[in-house]
Amino acid sequence: MNGTSTALNEHRPNVRTALVTGANRGLGRAVAAELHRRGFEVVVSARDGAQAREAAAGLGEDVRHIQLDVTDPGSVAAAARALPEVDVLVSNAGIMLDTGADPLTVPPELVERTMAVNLIGSWRVAQAFLPAMIGRGWGRLVFVSSATGSFTAGLFIGCPAYSVSKAALNGLTQMLAAHAEGTGVLVNAVNPGQTRTRMMPSATRTAEESAVAIADAVTLPDDGPTGTFRRGDRLIGW
Question: Which residues cross the membrane (predicted)?
């Protein structure tokens, strides 16, 4: 659907449109599938447009796709122009490059790359899509976070760049929730737990299982919580 400016849900006017970043595989693809199952108009996005198209085709004929690189301002701006009616944003795109490092040996270049995707990329996409949600008076923004970034649990030093990026993402969640409070837009972070993906192939929890918790945060009621850090229906300390 690259280049289209047609309103996404003009043929299904009562259906909410959900954009999932990093949805060509793993947890993102599972979230897209779960939201599609729950009746959302789903847009699969990925840095590689061909992979986004392939993933969308595998989920259903009515699933859309778009190329979106969260680290590229031009790509994000183009996606926002092409998708004017996004009601739900699941900010899932993320990387973990420093497993096994420690705070004194992790290369700063890896820290920069990690922050560019996990924090700055998520922030950039939120800036592109959240204002329209606020303007329409309804929306859901869900950040896929991690317990490695929880000060309550203790930041995990075994992947320091990833942990710090998720702690910062949790801070962004709180700020955006406060900014959007009372507008009809809910902003929350979800810790899906250790999930078996390319990032963590030895985990026992499937992407499909973890996707349910993320979709549950998307489908919170209008009087539901905002500015929270969640694991299923349980709140986690920041």
Answer: none
